[in-house]
Write a structure and sequence with these properties.
Elements (H helix, E strand, L loop, with lengths): L1 H7 L2 H8 L3 H8 L14 H6 L4 E6 L1 H5 L1 H10 L2 E4 L5 H4 L9 H12 L3 E8 L6 H8 L5 H18 L6 E6 L15 H6 L2 H13 L4 E6 L10 H15 L6 E4 L2 E3 L6 H12 L4 E12 L13 H18 L3 E6 L9 H4 L3 E2 L12 H15 L12
Parallel strand pairs: 1-2, 1-9, 2-3, 3-4, 4-5, 5-6, 6-8, 7-8, 8-9
Antiparallel strand pairs: 8-10
The structure holds (3S,4R)-3-hydroxy-2-oxopiperidin-4-yl beta-D-xylopyranoside (XIL).
Length: 389
Amino acid sequence: MRRRSFLAMGGAAGVAAAIPGSAATAAVRRPAVSPRHVDPPGTLRGLAELIGLRIGTAVIPFDLNTPAYNAVLAEQFSVVTPGNAMKWGSVEPTKGVFDWSDADTLVGFAEQHDQLVRGHTLLWHNQLPDWLTTGVANGTISSSALMGLLEQHIFTEVGRYRGRIWQWDVANEFFTDANPSGINPNDFWVSNLGPDIIGQAFRWAHEADPHALLFYNDYNIAGEDGTSAKSDAVFAWLRQMLDQGVPIDGVGNQGHLDTQFGFSGTRMTQDLQRYASLGLKVAITEADVRTFVDGPATQVPTDNLAAFAQPYEFGQMIKAALAVPECISFTVWGFGDADSWVPGFFTGEGYATIYDVKLQPKLAFFELMQELKLGALGAPRRVTGRAHR
Ligand code: XIL
């Protein structure tokens, strides 16, 4: 259909005729060029859209308040995740006093720019409000009160954005990094309420918004830990949850890589496929690839080869995503080195995103474009002449 209308409009010939000189004449003399070879809009979101994949980024207020970032955000991405704005500590800093301002602004921005939203995150041990953790520690919040507060939190937040969130990261980072791995007994939620609280959170979230896709999200669960121990444990737990009828729709692999550690794109593909074999959707939810740099302001890799390892690992991740049809979104954790969380969390490291500190696209950006182009359009068939038959 697209092909016919393109040719009817004088497609390839029209393009060629518009370009004076050699390129145009050469194009006319060559065998007819399929319109499939004409570039679609050259953006990450535009290319991914051709195969129904969404390209996302985490967003912090800086992105929305800085016009140059704001423009890239709208142009390149088709799904957004609040970097912090939907975490419990952000939305209810004081008990019973809510601050939805950043989350509302982001959801509004997304809707204006034809973007979907990944809600992040409802049940996590980090970035909880102080009043909650202090109350639990000093015994003024009992286990049953904590359970009630969590239920209320999930219904309040999921209910507020009901119908406007595509995927919710319901539960985040519950498994240990040990071999064998398992649900961390020392996790804040597990130690206070037992491991069944995770499945319960999914049930509450589903009740609060039956149409949102509900995800379990974690790091090092696809291709990253060298042994697949954590992936094995998460896989076994997911199967058990599904057997129990827990409403889980998908698994998010965060994808925080570091060039000093091993990573296998093949393994990532296999691990994602294995989750998908359970009937689940999968997503890459927080991709970045960090390396050692000269300093946080400039973020130039100190090792020349790392400058190539960084885009290579982004390439491996997007290839894994493309290879698994159940993978519905590929999200980077911020798109500019200037607003990445990495320099603040990993001493001496940076260069983790796809745009540099001056918001110029890096090799990793072009790597993603290249892979998406191949993924969306396929490599063109070889042009063969008589002599090569
Ligand atoms: C990070 C944010 O990017 C930082 O701004 C914040 O200070 C700490 O959290 N895994 C997750 C994310 O699921 O929520 C974390 O985000 C990064 C690791």
